[in-house]
Amino acid sequence: MCLPDRTNKHNFSKISLAIKDKLGVAITIRAYQAEDYRRLIDMYDKFEPKGIAMGLPHFDKKLRHNWIDCIVKSFFNTIAIYQNKIIGHSAIDIFRNKSSPEYMIFLDQDFRNRGIGTGQTMIIKKICKEFGCKQIWVAVTCHSMLGIKVFKKSGFKFTGTIGPEREMVLELKR
Ligand SMILES: CC(C)(COP(=O)(O)OP(=O)(O)OC[C@H]1O[C@@H](n2cnc3c(N)ncnc32)[C@H](O)[C@@H]1OP(=O)(O)O)[C@@H](O)C(=O)NCCC(=O)NCCS
């Protein structure tokens, strides 16, 4: 896997943090590695409801797997793990757009609303700050109450046109 800092000033590939969710369950959040691929596919195959966030993850298996391939190849990825199972995935497009990367996050339906998405987002925010990003943006559907709450709590603000799909931006540098 290519890593976000090609100059090795930071070593994001070694990121690994143990957190407790709101139920007191131990969750590990760490950088994605190539050997996690099968388990990540498994998470998205079991993910419900499909298409929840801007049509993602795709309903169609082939499209879904192609999308996962594209994300793991081109974004910097972190995963959340519970008992050897991947239950969360977040990705940030800092290879192609360091100044203003896109962010996305997906949690297994059994692990939502337990504080894990907030934890993963705070880690991504820290990585982007250290990496020197100016801002981070995320696309969110307006009925995603949990997503909007997590992004607002992390400092994201609505921007762009008002509609069923909104963009939120987190300014890291002025
Ligand atoms: C969006 C998502 C990543 C959020 O992660 P999460 O772990 O479920 O969220 P958290 O538990 O960290 O935080 C949820 C917050 O919403 C609050 N909340 C719960 N129900 C709510 C409601 N109906 N209205 C408003 N806020 C609500 C919770 O109280 C919590 O805030 P708090 O910690 O300040 O109390 C996750 O739910 C998910 O994967 N959803 C499906 C995919 C998606 O929509 N991704 C986002 C776009 S890329």
CATH topology group:
Aminopeptidase
Number of strands: 8
The low-confidence parts are: none
- The CATH architecture assignment turns out to be 3-Layer(aba) Sandwich
User: Mean pLDDT, nearest integer?
Assistant: 93
Number of helices: 4
- The Rg value, from CA coordinates, equals 15 Å
> What is the end-to-end distance?
31 Å
Order of helices and strands: EEHHEEEHEHEE
- Label the overall shape: globular
Helix content: 25-40%
In short:
The protein has about 170 residues and is α+β, with helices and mostly antiparallel strands.
List keywords for this structure.
174 residues, alpha+beta, Aminopeptidase, five-stranded antiparallel beta sheet, 4 helices, globular, binds coenzyme A
Give the topology.
Layout lengths: L15 E5 L5 E6 L5 H10 L14 H14 L1 E7 L2 E8 L10 E5 L8 H16 L3 E7 L3 H9 L3 E3 L5 E7 L3
Antiparallel strand pairs: 1-2, 2-3, 3-4, 4-5, 6-8, 7-8
The site of coenzyme A (COA) has 22 residues, from strand 5, helix 3, strand 6 and helix 4.
